[in-house]
Amino acid sequence: MRILGVLVAALAVAGAAGATAPPVKYIPVGPVSTIATQRGQLVSVALPHAAGKSWRIARPVSAKVLREVGEADVGANVVVVFKAVGKGRVTVVFARTRGGAPRADASRSFRVTVS
To answer: Is 7 a domain residue?
Structure first.
């Protein structure tokens, strides 16, 4: 019985770890940056920290053009790194929220063209 309890607890934790935040429905207008790069190159963006809030990608990004490969806290910023995997254009929209809230208080967008 004890082993069954441990298995149930482990599965509950694993399920929670795989959960995602709800979509961001309200995103205020924020700055937009334009980036041009070539296939195979890395593209990084820096987003300023805000106490108690986090940045998250708010709209789908074509995995045929860009793929996220890393994220790190660097000084006063969160740096997100993407790899340009195919030719095309995408806009990466980040929204800053408290927890998984569907309403953002700030946004940053990056229009990326990969040739």
So the answer is: no
> Percentage of residues in the chain with pLDDT exceeding 70?
82
CATH code, domain with 46: 2.60.40.2020
Domain carrying residue 57: 21-114
Backbone angles phi, psi at 79, to 5 degrees: -110, 125
Instruction: Look at residues 91, 57, 86 and name the one whose alpha carbon lies nearest to residue 71.
Output: 57
DSSP conformation class of 87: S
Please give the single-letter amino acid code of residue 49: H
- Per-residue pLDDT reduced to its tens digit, 25-39: 999 999 999 999 999
The single residue listed with the structure tokens 């309890």 is 5
Which of 49, 85, 91 is CA-nearest to residue 66?
85
